[in-house]
Design brief:
Elements lengths: L4 E5 L5 E5 L5 E5 L3 H12 L1 E7 L3 H9 L4 E5 L5 E7 L3 H20 L13 H28 L4 E5 L6 H8 L4 E5 L15 H11 L4 E4 L2 H15 L2 E4 L3 E4 L2 E7 L6 H8 L2 H13 L3 E8 L6 H14 L7 E8 L6 H21 L7 E5 L3 H10 L2 E4 L9 H8 L5 E5 L5 H4 L4 E3 L4 H13 L2 H17 L2 H15 L4
Parallel strand pairs: 1-4, 1-7, 4-6, 7-8, 8-9, 9-12, 13-14, 13-16, 14-15, 16-17, 17-18
Antiparallel strand pairs: 2-3, 5-6, 10-11, 11-12
Helix pairs in contact: 3-4, 4-5, 6-7, 9-12, 10-11, 10-15, 12-13
The protein binds 6-O-phosphono-beta-D-fructofuranose.
Length: 487
C-alpha cells in the first residue's frame, strides 16, 4: 500500500491534553468511535490531524506550538502531526452548544417535537454566523495552511460540526481533493425545511464542494441524494450515487465503519477489564440486560427503562432473577436539553426501582460515568444487549459487545440504527418508539434456545471480523481514487 498524505479534520481530536496537580502535562485519548476508527489511517499514512483545542491545556499546547501543530505518537507508535485550532471561547460555545448539537444533531436524529421546538430566533441566527461559521472558517484556514505545505494531500472532513468548511476551502483551492464523512443519520429532505432556507441551502452546497461525501449506510446516502436535489437543486449524475452542482461532481458513498477486533480481544483480557468484570459478576442476577450509551436523547434510554418496566409487569416470575445494567457516559452537559435528559433518565430509573425493588435486588443498576474498562466488562457479561436508539448513524456498541461476549448474549436492535442494515438478520429488531414491542423483544431474547443464541452471536462476530476497520479505511481510500486524484 502506498503512503498517502491525508489531512484529517474533526472537531474532537485524537488526544486531549490535561495538567495534573503537580503541574505536569498529560495526554488523554479522545473519546468516541471516530478517533479509534481513524487510528489505523495514522499507522499506514502521513497524517496531519486538525482538531479544536477544547481544554485549557489544549489551548496552551496550541499556543506553545506557534502554528498549533505538534508531533504526536499514536498508541501503536506511529507518528502523526496534530494541529490544534484555538477558537474564541464564546464563538466555540455558540458553535458547539447552540448550533452543532442542539440544532444540527437534533435535526439529523429527528429529536424535536416540532410544535414546541426549534425556534430560529435571533440568538440562533447570531450563533450560526458568529459561532458555527466562524469556527468553520478557523478550520478552513488551518486546512489551507496545511495544504500550502502538502498540496497533494487529501482533506478528510468529519461530521456535522464542519459542514461549512469544505466550501471555504474549495473557494481558495479549486484543485484540492476534499472528502467528508458524515457519521450521523441524514434525515429526509422535508425535515431539512425546519432550518431557514439560507442555512439549509449553505449546508448542502458546502457539502457538495467535496469530491466525496460518505455515510455509514445506504439509507442515509439515499436521503442525502434526495435532499441535495430538493434543497440545493443538484442533479443526480448516476443512480449509483453521484451529484452534479455547478459543474462539480460529488461522489456519494456508503460504507459502515467498524472496529479493530484485535483491540477488543486484548482489552477483554486486560487487568482493568478483568477487575471490573469481577465486580459485575459478583452483583449480577441470573440474567443481565446491558446497555452502554452516552446520555444523549437520541439513545432512547428513558423508553428503554419504560419497556423494561412493562416486561417486569408482565413477568413477575423474573423478579429478582433479571436486572438491567445501564452504563451511561454523561455527555454535552452544558446544553440544557442534555442535562434535562439526564434528569429524566435518573427519574425514570428511580421510578422503576421504587416500584419493584426489594432487599437484594435492584431492577435497574444505573451508573453515570465514563468508564471504558467497565463497559467492556459489561460487554462480556450480557445476556441481552439493548440498543434501542431513536436514530443512530451506525452504533458501534452493537459491533463491539458481541465480539467479547461470553454468555451467548442476544442483540436487541433498533430498526433506526445504521448498524441494523448489517446485523438485522441476527438481532431481534425493535421499533424504538414501541414500548410493548421492546418489552416483548426482551422476553423473546431471554427465551431464545441456547443453540439459536450461539448461532446468532457467532454470525455477528464473523461479520464484524470480516468487515473490520481496515476494510472501512480501504473503502474510503478507494473512494478517494474513484473521485480522482488532486490535479
Ligand atoms: O457520532 C458522532 C460523534 O462525533 C462520535 O464520533 C462521537 O462518539 C460522539 O459524536 C461524541 O460527541 P462529542 O464530541 O460531542 O462528545
Amino acid at each position: 500500500m502506498s503512503r498517502r498524505q491525508i489531512i484529517v479534520v474533526s472537531n474532537r481530536g485524537p488526544v486531549g491534553f490535561t495538567r495534573d496537580a503537580a503541574g505536569a502535562r498529560g495526554a488523554r485519548r479522545g473519546g468516541g468511535g471516530l478517533v479509534t476508527a481513524l487510528r489505523s489511517l495514522v499507522s499506514h499514512h502521513d497524517v496531519t490531524w486538525i482538531a479544536s483545542a477544547i481544554s485549557e491545556e489544549d489551548r496552551a499546547v496550541a499556543a506553545d506550538a506557534g502554528d498549533g501543530a505538534v508531533d504526536e505518537t499514536a498508541r501503536d507508535g506511529s507518528p502523526y502531526r496534530l494541529r490544534l485550532v484555538a477558537h474564541d471561547a464564546i464563538a466555540y460555545d455558540w458553535f458547539y452548544n447552540v448550533v452543532s448539537n442542539p440544532v444540527l444533531w437534533f435535526l439529523q436524529h429527528y429529536l424535536w417535537p416540532l410544535a414546541a421546538a426549534p425556534s430560529a430566533d435571533p440568538g440562533l441566527h447570531h450563533a450560526w454566523h458568529e459561532g458555527y461559521a466562524r469556527v468553520n472558517r478557523n478550520f478552513a484556514e488551518a486546512v489551507l495552511a496545511e495544504l500550502e505545505a502538502r498540496p497533494g494531500a487529501t482533506v478528510f472532513f468529519h461530521d456535522y460540526h464542519l459542514y461549512l468548511a469544505p466550501q471555504m476551502v474549495r473557494e481558495a483551492r479549486p484543485d484540492a481533493q476534499l472528502a467528508h464523512f458524515v457519521h450521523v443519520p441524514w434525515p429526509q429532505p422535508d425535515y431539512w425545511h425546519v432550518l431557514p432556507e439560507a442555512l439549509r441551502r449553505v449546508v448542502h452546497e458546502s457539502l457538495l464542494a467535496n469530491d466525496v461525501v460518505g455515510f455509514h449506510t445506504s439509507r442515509w446516502a439515499r436521503n442525502f441524494l434526495r435532499s441535495c436535489e430538493q434543497v440545493a437543486g443538484a442533479s443526480c449524475d448516476d443512480p449509483g450515487g453521484a451529484l452534479l452542482l455547478d459543474g462539480r461532481r460529488t461522489l456519494v458513498t456508503s460504507h459502515a465503519i467498524s472496529v479493530d477486533p484485535q483491540e477488543f480481544d486484548e482489552l477483554a483480557a486486560s487487568d482493568a477489564v478483568l477487575a471490573a468484570e469481577r465486580e459485575i459478576a459478583a452483583r449480577r442476577p441470573e440474567k443481565l440486560i446491558v446497555r452502554v450509551d452516552r446520555t444523549d436523547p437520541s439513545k432512547n434510554v428513558v423508553r428503554g427503562f419504560r419497556a423494561f418496566e412493562l416486561y417486569l409487569d408482565a413477568h413477575p416470575e423474573m423478579h429478582g432473577r433479571v436486572a438491567m445494567l445501564a452504563l451511561l457516559d454523561p455527555s454535552r452537559q452544558d446544553i440544557p436539553e442534555y442535562s434535562e435528559y439526564l434528569g429524566a433518565i435518573q427519574r425514570t430509573a428511580r421510578q422503576v426501582n421504587d416500584r419493584f425493588q426489594r432487599l437484594g435486588w435492584t431492577p435497574i443498576d444505573l451508573q453515570i460515568r465514563d468508564d471504558f474498562p467497565q463497559a467492556v466488562a459489561a460487554y462480556k457479561q450480557f445476556d441481552v444487549l439493548l440498543v434501542n436508539a431513536i436514530f443512530d448513524g451506525l452504533n458501534l456498541v452493537a459491533k463491539e459487545a458481541p465480539l467479547v461476549n461470553e454468555r451467548d448474549g442476544v442483540l436487541v436492535l433498533s430498526e433506526n440504527a445504521g448498524v441494523h442494515e448489517e446485523l438485522a438478520e441476527w438481532a431481534i429488531s425493535v421499533n424504538p418508539f414501541d414500548l410493548v414491542g421492546q418489552a416483548n423483544a426482551i422476553h423473546a431474547a431471554l427465551e431464545l434456545p441456547p443453540e439459536e443464541r450461539r448461532a446468532r452471536l457467532d454470525a455477528i462476530r464473523a461479520h464484524v471480523r470480516r468487515n473490520d476497520l481496515e476494510v472501512w479505511i480501504d473503502a474510503q481510500l478507494a473512494d478517494f481514487d474513484r473521485a480522482g486524484a488532486p490535479s
